[in-house]
Amino acid sequence: MLVYLGVMLLFCFLYWWYRDSKQITAVSDKHVYITGCDSGFGYLLAQHLDKQGFHVLAACFTEQGAQELEDKTSSRLKTFQLDVTNSESIGKAAEFVKSQVKDKGLWGLVNNAGIAQPIGPSDWLTIDDYKVQLDVNLIGLIEVTLSMIPLIKRARGRIVNMASICGRLSCFGGSYCISKFGVEAFNDSLRRDLQCFGVKVACIEPGYFKTSVTNPDLIKEKLIKLWGRLPRDVQEDYGDDYLDKTCPLVKKNIEKLAEPNLMKVVSRIHHALTSVHPRSRYAVGVDAKLLWIPLSYMPTAFADFLLVGSAVKPAKAVY
Prior knowledge:
Elements: H1 2-21, E1 31-34, H2 40-52, E2 55-60, H3 63-71, E3 78-81, H4 87-101, E4 108-111, H5 127-155, E5 158-162, H6 175-194, E6 200-206, H7 216-228, H8 232-238, H9 242-257, H10 263-274, E7 281-284, H11 286-296, H12 300-309
Parallel strand pairs: 1-2, 1-4, 2-3, 4-5, 5-6, 6-7
Helix pairs in contact: 2-10, 4-5, 5-6, 7-9
């Protein structure tokens, strides 16, 4: 019986591996629209896809980011400025993309633009702090996607949404995790809604990688600013030495967990764009696969115990 079970499991694995390895071959006539190409994953992805022969439409927030990308890529790659929080900017970008793809439609949309600050204890933040990240990471992503759906349906193409392991487990306060949970939900509904039109939708869930998002110096700088505007009674709740204890701990955890090889994420996005049978989700990074994703399936009390227990305890904590 065990032998038959082993053979069946081996067959299932080989079949999965065969499906997963099948790739489209013709890419020279395909356009891919990427947001957030100034730095990090978007910057590397744009260069990678350009080398593979795709027509890359790279949206950058700044002129400097666009120029730096143009200097490192071929003439196939086209850059333009995009502010995903501005509907007029999104509309202009949509018109530009239409002018480039013409009747062929858009093969790929990669929603990569995002920000991670501010983060911190929930009672350190204002509603405007929450809105800033939600506008970029979630509302902007949705609006860009809606503007491209007709072109993607025409090409029977792909939509790749950049989520995070923080969309599976809320690891810290602020709206970053909230926005990524929203991306996960939007990704699921979008995948089901567009499946009948031949459009495939995938979600990327990176763990900790060494980007500006996980720069401990930037995180420390933002935490100091948040601390400085807190009412005195809230500061007393946490204790005057709270930041002195928290910042080194944040830096230690990031240095321990964050991977330097950003191409791991880029390769998963490439797979989602070129696989005949792309996966619905791509967890990327050792910490994502062995720590955060398994922890997200654990009982809530167990996850709370680990996350709260590993954080600095406020001065006036009662538990």
